[in-house]
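Lecture 7 notes: from sequence to structure.

We start with a single chain of 161 residues. Read the sequence below before looking at the structure.
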Amino acid sequence: MGQIAVIGASDTTTEEYEAAHIVGSLIAKNHETLVCGGLYGVMEAACKGAKEQVGLTIGIVPDTGKGNQYLDIVIRTGLGHARNVIVAQSADAVIAIGGSYGTLSEIAIALKMKRPVFGVKTWDIDGVIRCPTPEEAVLRAVHAARQSPLYRIPQDFLGSP
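Now the structure, written as tokens:
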């Protein structure tokens, strides 16, 4: 399973929320793990979409709270915005939706770490692969994640060793 980070602001537009919901749903349908900053807005919408498809969601939260209600795993960092490094480092590929300065920092970190970044109505900067739809962003991110040397093929724990 690959780990696809979905990044974006806690304060979103309706269009960004809907795009994130679609992205989360499609990540789960493709049997990949969704990683995010664990809070609200884009992060919550993506997690909600993933959970509706019985996907796995991981939130790397900036504080010691519980994050949004759609998280399966909560990693409490107490690092504030510094947790953005962990979000980017944990991803095989990144999907950016909208966003503000926190999203910009995650994009920069991901690009610095050579993680592919696919953008839906987000920052227009070198290195971000612009995608006109959430569906295209997920298709490209899943493909990129599966090409990553970090990609893990799930083990069959029920079968013989």
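Residues 3-147 form a domain with the Rossmann fold fold (CATH 3.40.50.450). Keep this in mind for problem set 3.
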